[in-house]
Design goal:
This protein is α/β, with parallel strands linked by helices. Helices cover 44% and strands 20% of the residues. The longest helix has 35 residues. It is globular, with a radius of gyration of 25 Å.
């Protein structure tokens, strides 16, 4: 019988997939048979297996799971699904689909890693919140939360109580995306909180720019701009966005404050910025800082002379019609996800999580629960047999 670990979070983009990936990798390294599923998915992609949740695609391709993605992700919330469900145009047996998928995924497995969607209450609109799904699958929850103190504890308590209201045990907590300088203080406070609530503290993971920022490839996939010129660096992480909506002097000032690979967004009519680009290197903060990509906005594409100037500087050139503000808003709303082709991000996950997560504590806690449950079931069976014998005698 597989042991189920439900990786839940206190909100969006907290790092469930990162933790799920690292845990699967660790278990496989321990020669365990592992299954993965995301019962309810909201962010689906077209794939060779149809429309499937993107996290399932990642796990399927990296770990070569044999199960069909439709079983690993039995419920896909496509456009209009919620409205149809509420208006009773469709009334599928979602619990039946979840259990069917789980039964296939868990067959001959030692562990099943079950990834939730958003916070504990997400999915309630279709009567399948994370708490309800964890209850259906009899899984114990590991809560993942962003590093902090006040807001972090508030979110932990709210989600813990919601899960427990459905009879689901929250085993422990993982604190993710923690600013390094604040790490010792946050660890002390969260550890005290966990102790006061009878929760295990499984680890605290520092913030990683590599995992927290999008690659050029993801930006292209999400924004869907016209690609005027590219340098073959779609796997490169973009560290900062800078808007060219000010004077040259102010623009240079913004550049001086930034480090890493920069993406500039401004209208193609800003020839003053375009022709200043070749001379900007002297103003950059370090040799590692680079104007990596320019995403032009506005009604007009850049001129041939502007394009040539930027190509000579080995800069990626993109164009997206529309207002600069709307484009920046779209960039800022990108949900950062690790993709199968992002090998360097995968290496970063292995390094940063493995060094800061107490796998032994997490897995031992689950083993203890499994042993206790198994012990209880055996005694319950003996009691039932004893009662049955008494009935036969009398």
């Amino acid at each position: 019988m597989a042991k189920n670990i439900f990786i839940a979070a206190t909100g969006k983009d907290v790092g469930k997939s990162t933790i799920s990936f690292a845990l699967i990798d660790e278990l496989i390294g321990r020669s365990k048979e592992v299954g993965f599923m995301k019962p309810v998915g909201q962010r689906w992609l077209d794939s060779p297996w149809g429309k499937v949740e993107e996290d399932v695609i990642l796990m399927k391709e990296i770990f070569q799971f044999s199960e069909k993605p439709s079983l690993m992700n039995p419920i896909v919330i496509k456009k209009g699904f919620t409205e149809d469900y509420l208006s009773k145009i469709i009334k599928p047996d979602l619990e039946k689909e979840i259990v069917k998928g789980y039964n296939e995924v868990s067959r001959d497995k030692d562990y099943v890693i079950i990834e939730g969607t958003g916070h504990a209450g997400v999915g309630a609109v279709i009567d399948k919140s994370n708490a309800q799904v964890a209850s259906i699958l009899k899984a114990d929850v590991v809560l993942v939360v962003k590093g902090g103190i006040g807001n972090t504890i508030d979110r932990l308590e709210l989600n813990r109580r919601f899960f427990e209201s459905y009879g689901v045990k929250v085993s422990g907590v993982i604190v993710n995306k923690t600013i390094t300088e604040k790490l010792p203080k946050i660890e002390t406070v969260i550890h005290k909180y966990c102790k006061s609530r009878g929760l295990k503290f499984f680890g605290i993971i520092p913030y990683s720019p590599i995992l927290s920022h999008p690659t050029l490839g993801q930006i292209i996939d999400e924004i869907k701009p016209e690609i005027i010129h590219e340098t073959g660096e779609r796997k490169t992480v973009i560290d900062s966005f800078i808007v060219g909506a000010s004077t040259i002097e102010e623009f240079v000032g913004f550049l001086e404050e930034k480090e890493g690979n920069l993406l500039l967004v401004f209208p193609a009519v800003r020839l003053d910025i375009i022709f200043a680009i070749p001379n900007l290197k002297k103003f950059l903060n370090s040799e590692k800082t680079r104007v990596h990509t320019i995403l032009f906005s506005g009604r007009h594409r850049p001129s041939k002379m502007a394009i040539k100037t930027l190509i000579d500087e080995k800069i990626n050139i993109l164009y997206k019609g529309g207002e600069t503000f709307s484009i920046i808003s779209a960039l800022s709303s990108i949900s950062i996800k690790t993709r199968p082709e992002d090998s360097f991000k995968i290496d970063e996950i292995k390094k940063i999580v493995s060094g800061n997560l107490n796998y032994s504590s997490l897995l031992n806690d689950l083993e203890d629960i499994s042993i206790t449950t198994s012990f209880f079931k055996r005694w319950l069976k003996k009691i039932k047999n004893f009662i049955q014998k008494i009935k036969i005698i009398f």
